């Protein structure tokens, strides 16, 4: 299968690997002079408690659909085929318990709001991820379509369009992508018809980025010249990747400008990090992605998206490679979560929350950890999927997210599902509402009108900001 405007997957991966090896990030373009003043924001919406509280956003995308019933919305009184096989442990929130395999996060949740009322009706990964990343339903609901030129842009690019960074050549970064849904990169990660300079910096695998982008305190001119020579050999792949975009040279020049920014170089260099901190986050893609995100936030990047799992269900083809595991656990759910997914989430997210708190960053950083949907209440084996022990199907009707920072009420639980965890019974919100919350918390009116390069006009993000995360009820 080919992605419109891109080369076949194998060639694309080879190209991106080679591109990353040069130490340059794809997707950077010159910011036209004066554009930041071209689209003044309209009057702010009705002020809610979170309006303008955040200077930056960290969006952690747990792709594949984590089971809310086996993590933060457990149903211990339900029958075994509903509640599953995990026990629960107490958190600092009175009466609120989480999965027994989240011991560190059970303590760090004191910084967060557990929002148990997310809901929509798109039941497949590709289009549900698109909904989460763009705030809009895909025309092909509940499917896995390839990216298309007419797609809506990802919201990090929309933010970049509205808030061009005054010092960096980008306002956003995507880490640990591209997101595979489940085999090819899914829709909703691109910029659609926005200007090329709105594209987030794409850092890819943080385990590789740290070494390939390690630049030291200085870069000898011979190394820069060598990288320029290597780039000159990518003409054929370049034309396929950018489909003849005449601004490719501008991408290169903006990318090279990053090499001259000490703060950015330092953020990418894990050798500068305290070994104890490296160990605390964990030596895996999820942990390194969270750590790199924190470092980029400190370096001044206002919007960072981390794909906690670069594949929604890579364990089907890579059952012995934990880095490939995603949250799409149709079968073998308790084994995959117990042995790989929950320990990594517990380590990485708890380290991130504590680190941000200790550094004072939680005061003005909005942190959101969400998947595209939850998992079905009933545990059963699905014969059409890999694995032999029971799992859970996709379930968009109810799922849980975590949010922290920027004035969000800490140590709180908002929303409720029914006794089986299948339906939201209070405080229901959609992905559009969640992303409208992000924009409003950053001080951007979600109704702000944007015009793309083809003259199409649309709002920054539909939806209504979620007030209850700041009220705690």
Number of helices: 15
Could you please say which CATH topology of the largest domain applies here?
Answer: Alkaline Phosphatase, subunit A
By CATH reckoning, the class of the largest domain would read: Alpha Beta
Strand content: 5-15%
Q: Based on the structure given, which CATH architecture of the largest domain is correct?
A: 3-Layer(aba) Sandwich
Number of strands: 16
The amount of helix comes to 25-40%
Structural class label? alpha/beta
Q: How many domain regions?
A: 2
The shape, in one word, is globular
Q: Can you tell me the residue ranges where pLDDT is under 50 for at least 5 consecutive residues?
A: 1-43, 211-247
Largest sheet data: 8 strands, mixed
Mean pLDDT value: 84
The CATH superfamily of the largest domain is Alkaline Phosphatase, subunit A
Q: What integer value in Å does the Rg equal?
A: 21 Å
Task: Describe the overall structure.
The protein has two domains: 1-30 and 221-256, no CATH class; 48-214 and 269-471, 3-Layer(aba) Sandwich (Alkaline Phosphatase, subunit A). 32% of the residues lie in helices and 13% in strands. The protein has 15 helices and 16 strands. It has helices spanning 9-21, 80-83, 103-108, 125-134, 155-162, 206-212, 221-232, 235-242, 248-259, 262-268, 275-281, 285-298, 333-358, 431-441, 468-471, and strands at 56-61, 88-90, 97-99, 112-118, 172-175, 201-204, 303-307, 365-370, 374-375, 394-395, 399-404, 412-414, 416-417, 424-426, 449-451, 457-459. α12 (285-298) runs parallel beside α13. It is globular and about 55 Å long. Mean pLDDT is 84; it is low at 1-43 and 211-247.
């Amino acid at each position: 299968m080919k992605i419109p405007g891109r080369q076949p997957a194998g060639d694309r991966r080879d190209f991106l690997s080679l591109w990353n090896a040069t130490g340059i990030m794809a997707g950077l373009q010159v910011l036209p002079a004066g554009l930041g003043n071209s689209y003044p924001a309209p009057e702010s919406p009705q002020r809610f408690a979170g309006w303008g509280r955040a200077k930056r956003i960290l969006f952690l995308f747990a792709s594949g659909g984590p089971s809310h019933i086996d993590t933060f919305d457990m149903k211990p009184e339900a029958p075994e085929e509903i509640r599953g096989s995990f026990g629960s442990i107490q958190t600092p929130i009175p009466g609120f318990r989480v999965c027994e395999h989240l011991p560190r996060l059970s303590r760090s949740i004191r910084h967060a709001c557990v929002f148990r009322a997310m809901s929509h009706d798109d039941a497949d990964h590709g289009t549900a991820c698109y909904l989460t990343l763009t705030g809009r339903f895909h025309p092909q609901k509940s499917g896995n379509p390839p990216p298309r030129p007419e797609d809506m842009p990802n919201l990090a690019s929309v933010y970049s369009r509205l808030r061009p960074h005054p010092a960096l050549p980008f306002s956003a970064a995507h880490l640990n992508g591209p997101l595979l849904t489940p085999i090819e990169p899914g829709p909703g990660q691109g910029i659609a018809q926005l200007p090329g300079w709105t594209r987030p910096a794409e850092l890819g695998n943080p385990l590789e980025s740290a070494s390939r982008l390690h630049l030291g305190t200085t870069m000898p001119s011979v190394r820069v010249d060598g990288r320029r020579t290597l780039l000159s050999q990518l003409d054929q792949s370049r034309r396929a990747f950018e489909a003849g975009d005449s601004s490719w040279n501008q991408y290169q020049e903006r990318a090279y400008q990053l090499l001259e920014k000490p703060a950015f170089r330092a953020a990418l260099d894990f050798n500068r990090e305290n070994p104890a901190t490296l160990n605390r986050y964990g030596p895996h893609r999820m942990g390194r992605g969270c750590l790199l995100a924190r470092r980029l936030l400190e370096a001044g990047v206002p919007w960072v998206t981390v794909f906690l799992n670069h594949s929604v269900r890579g364990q089907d083809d890579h059952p012995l490679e934990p880095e490939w595991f995603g949250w799409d656990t149709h079968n073998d759910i308790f084994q995959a979560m117990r042995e790989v997914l929950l320990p990594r989430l517990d380590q990485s997210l708890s380290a991130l929350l504590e680190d941000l708190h200790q550094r004072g960053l939680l005061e003005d950083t909005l942190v959101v950890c969400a998947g595209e949907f939850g998992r079905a209440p009933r545990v059963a084996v699905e014969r059409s999927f890999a694995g032999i022990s029971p799992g859970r199907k996709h379930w968009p009707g109810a799922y849980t997210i975590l949010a922290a920072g920027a004035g969000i009420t800490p140590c709180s639980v908002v929303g409720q599902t029914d006794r089986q965890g299948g339906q939201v019974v209070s405080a229901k919100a959609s992905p559009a509402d969640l992303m409208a919350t992000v924009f409003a918390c950053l001080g951007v009116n979600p109704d702000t009108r944007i015009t793309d390069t083809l003259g199409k006009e649309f709002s920054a993000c539909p939806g209504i900001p979620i007030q209850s995360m700041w009220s705690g009820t």
